[in-house]
Amino acid sequence: MIRDPKRLSTSEAIRQQHGRDLTSYHAGRFPDVVLYPKDKEELREIIAYANRIGCPIVPFGLGTSVEGQVVPVQGGISLNFTHMNRILEIRADDFAVRVEPGVTRMQLNRELKKYGLYFPIDPGVDATLGGMAATNASGCSAVRYGSTREQILGMEAILADGSPIRTGSLAKKSSAGYNLTQLLAGSEGTLAVFAELTLRVYGLPETFLYAKAVFPDLQQACKAANRMLYRSIQPSKIELVDAYTIQAINSYKQTKYEEKPTLFLELSGWKSAVTAEVERVKEIIQEEGAGAWSHTFDESFGEQLWDARRHAALAIAALAPEKKLMTTDVCVPLSVLPEAVSFAREVMQAEDLQGAILGHIGDGNYHAVFPIDPSVPEEAAKAAKVNERIVRFALERGGTCSGEHGIGLGKKQYLTEEHGDAVPWMKKIKEAFDPNHILNPGKIF
Amino acid sequence: MIRDPKRLSTSEAIRQQHGRDLTSYHAGRFPDVVLYPKDKEELREIIAYANRIGCPIVPFGLGTSVEGQVVPVQGGISLNFTHMNRILEIRADDFAVRVEPGVTRMQLNRELKKYGLYFPIDPGVDATLGGMAATNASGCSAVRYGSTREQILGMEAILADGSPIRTGSLAKKSSAGYNLTQLLAGSEGTLAVFAELTLRVYGLPETFLYAKAVFPDLQQACKAANRMLYRSIQPSKIELVDAYTIQAINSYKQTKYEEKPTLFLELSGWKSAVTAEVERVKEIIQEEGAGAWSHTFDESFGEQLWDARRHAALAIAALAPEKKLMTTDVCVPLSVLPEAVSFAREVMQAEDLQGAILGHIGDGNYHAVFPIDPSVPEEAAKAAKVNERIVRFALERGGTCSGEHGIGLGKKQYLTEEHGDAVPWMKKIKEAFDPNHILNPGKIF
Ligand SMILES: Cc1cc2nc3c(=O)[nH]c(=O)nc-3n(C[C@H](O)[C@H](O)[C@H](O)COP(=O)(O)OP(=O)(O)OC[C@H]3O[C@@H](n4cnc5c(N)ncnc54)[C@H](O)[C@@H]3O)c2cc1C
Ligand SMILES: Cc1cc2nc3c(=O)[nH]c(=O)nc-3n(C[C@H](O)[C@H](O)[C@H](O)COP(=O)(O)OP(=O)(O)OC[C@H]3O[C@@H](n4cnc5c(N)ncnc54)[C@H](O)[C@@H]3O)c2cc1C
């Protein structure tokens, strides 16, 4: 199995680290042991062994998932992929790479840059590609490129009984049999453990343009974003941050952004196209009553802008360091977005909950984020209520309870609300693939 | 069940029509009865009933699939969706539509045009959206928009026991539980029957530009196409047709295209962007040694061009009307394409088989198409041999045996070659969803 005892740990500190996710909102339990497999063969042996003895296995990337996905609620083995972090092959001419699951997106992008390529999916924090595939992470660039699942051409996965399978191929598309790649993507470690991923990558655009537009209110910011999409403008990023978030960022990053609802934008592509596009964007933005507008090709401005956006959640957390962050993750049809965001703001106000609203609004996906102390029953109850009302509002209008974070522990009840008729069939698949329930038990269902 | 006897047929002629696909290459068997459900409720009742008595059900769209998918190899019911062809909702502001599965792509596009929208997926012939979802059809526009599966936001499906489930939502993305939408898409009627589809649609681009480039040989045409993609050019169509195909088209359509390997191209988007892009394309094309090059914004030229491309298969068939068309459908990594296409040409020559090569080369997907008489054992053997060598060449280089046509009857052995380790797990899903094997039995596996 693990052929080097250094890659096995039962130390309290290490187990604790693997017993919770970054937000720590979800109550933790330690794994009994943390294993660091170094290759497919070890991985296969561990899983087959765990299956024989009925021991739970919880894959662990960087532990940045926010719905308690990595918490080993039934103890057992936490599988850490730090030692499986090799970039196996860069096939520049095929716009494809093969990686081990412990490779992080930033690590991959550092390497890809040498080839004039990049992997655009950006959930803000760094994360392993295995973790991103398992939660179907998306983030800022999904509006142009889709989520992580759209980037997965194929994978090598180990099933619960230790069987390795290869799904997909190096080809850009396929209609060969059931699409197991897309079934396993987003399965949060409950159906299979990824041993290798084949991912799509892209040519680095010639130019990036960065822009910022400040609005008098949230609704107008959302409407402006929609109007762009309706006019076939394809930003590579379009992010909403509300006044509360800007305050948090200003205090965290010592920046001086105007403390009003703001759109952060990125256009990219050929310089000539971007230059023409930004004029159309500006026109729309101004018609929608934006106050300050600025745009630039200057990379340092762009870096500052996206750095601020990336640290938004941490900045919000820093406003109340003694609390934990709870976050909603609904995704609604685009036309519903302006109304949904206003509703979220009202609901928080009604419950007297301080919190932020920010989101990937080109997808209709936004987060209401509120720091709470889950050990204070009253606060937990308020948060649960706000969460519930926001989710229900989305579901009633054809939306989903999770745009990108996944179900984990935190959204189980909403999965049932959203897909009650389909859940029994998801469970049949779980049963067929993992009859002993060893793979990340207690998650999703 | 069927509440109007007019929507049930046991006539010989009708049963015969539902006993084969358009190419008739695959040996037919008639269904015992053809039913034309008119709504979900009837559909549900038929399926539940068939499941109780163990009667096979084969969904039938327009019967244009080419791997024998609609042939009822075990008899039973053929389910025709002609009466379930309503466009239920056009949500222009959400870039989404809800349709019944019998709606055809052309029917949908006629309606969408009124809203300045379109559904880009274009497998040449007209086809139902249910059939396209079930084979994961793609065709000319996949290079920009992806295949049919990428357009499916959600669906209502009836499972083998008559259970209706809703998958996905109206939101652009979701991480809520296992992705049943993507599992059912491409399942060729073997896992569920679609009762309703929610599809993504797009704003009609401001401009379309059409172009044609003639090359001295196939390899160079492929290389030119690849070079465009390497330079981040995003055509909305880029099609290869070889000299044989052009001959066939000229004779079928009375056109006078130069009888050499040719790229058919379409660029689309904002006029300013397209105008800049075509200059880059032209430069690349000429560097790669193209002979004649022409481009135009003229729609009638475009219509003629794509009409020719669309009729390519029929034109090839018309060269040998007494024979049947067999077609390969491999998809290879882009870098392998020039070599793969040359190999296909050599293999056909070696076997002295007349045939065409054409394809969606922006995806690495090409077809070798040869008219044969399957009742002449020698011809059938030759065709099988060519098919096998072409598929194996692709598989050895990381490609897939089916880029877009699916497995049906015709590619079963290659599915096993490609995904031998995964097939048992596909079968477990089949078993879990359709334990009585009533849904399109004998296909895929
Ligand atoms: C501040 C902050 C901001 C965030 N913003 C976004 C955002 O904008 N968009 C977004 O989508 N997400 C966001 N996230 C969530 C998070 O980054 C993603 O969920 C990420 O994909 C998790 O990656 P990870 O490597 O940390 O995985 P982990 O958290 O370690 O694991 C996530 C899941 O993947 C499974 N897993 C890990 N490796 C494997 C493997 N090899 N095989 C099978 N299963 C595996 C785990 O069991 C678990 O179920 C944010 C998180 C934080 C803390
Ligand atoms: C000349 C020619 C050119 C072609 N070119 C292309 C091309 O470029 N690209 C491409 O991808 N394809 C191409 N095809 C193949 C074909 O057009 C596609 O496979 C198409 O998707 C089939 O649609 P249909 O409505 O005819 O479905 P059918 O052939 O009737 O059925 C196809 C499959 O879908 C299932 N099905 C139908 N309706 C439902 C439903 N409601 N629920 C569940 N399952 C259902 C059937 O059981 C069957 O398995 C071509 C075919 C021809 C004849």
Verbal overview:
Two copies of one chain form a homodimer. With 445 residues, the first copy, chain A, is α+β, with helices and mostly antiparallel strands. Chain A folds into three domains: 1-204 and 412-445, Uridine Diphospho-n-acetylenolpyruvylglucosamine Reductase, domain 3 (2-Layer Sandwich), CATH 3.30.465.10; 207-313, Alpha-Beta Plaits; 318-411, 2-Layer Sandwich (Alpha-Beta Plaits). Helix content of chain A is 36%, strand content 20%. The first copy, chain A, is built from 15 helices and 18 strands. The longest helix of chain A has 20 residues, at 377-396. The first copy, chain A, is globular. Chains A and B meet through strand 9, helix 6, helix 7, helix 9 and helix 14 of A and strand 9, helix 6, helix 7, helix 9 and helix 14 of B. One flavin-adenine dinucleotide (FAD) binds at residues 21-22, 58-66, 69-70, 81, 101, 123-125, 127-128, 130-132, 134-135, 137-139, 188-189, 193-194, 313-314, 404-405, 440 of chain B. One flavin-adenine dinucleotide binds at residues 21-22, 58-66, 69-70, 81, 101, 123-125, 127-128, 130-132, 134-135, 137-139, 188-189, 193-194, 313-314, 404-405, 440 of chain B.
Write a brief structural summary.
The first copy, chain A, is of the alpha+beta class.
Cα-based radius of gyration of chain A, to the nearest Å: 22 Å
The total strand number of chain A stands at 18
CATH class designation of the largest domain in chain A: Alpha Beta
Looking at CATH, which topology of the largest domain in chain A would you report? Uridine Diphospho-n-acetylenolpyruvylglucosamine Reductase, domain 3
| Straight-line distance between termini of chain A | 30 Å
Bound molecules: flavin-adenine dinucleotide
CATH architecture of the largest domain in chain A: 2-Layer Sandwich
Strand content of chain A: 15-25%
Largest interface: A-B, 91 and 91 residues
| Low-pLDDT ranges of chain A | none
Q: What's the main sheet of chain A like?
A: 7 strands, antiparallel
Oligomer: homodimer
Counting DSSP H or I runs of 4 or more residues, the number of helices of chain A is: 15
Average the pLDDT over all residues of chain A and give the rounded result.
Answer: 95
Biggest sheet: strand arrangement of chain A: 15-12-14-13-17-18-16
Class from helix and strand fractions of chain A? alpha+beta
Shape by Cα distribution of chain A = globular
Number of domains of chain A: 3
Q: Indicate the percent of residues in helices of chain A.
A: 25-40%
Cofactor (chains A, B): FAD
Keywords (chains A, B): FAD, Flavoprotein, Oxidoreductase, Transit peptide
Domain FAD-binding PCMH-type (chains A, B): 27-204
Protein name (chains A, B): D-lactate dehydrogenase (cytochrome)
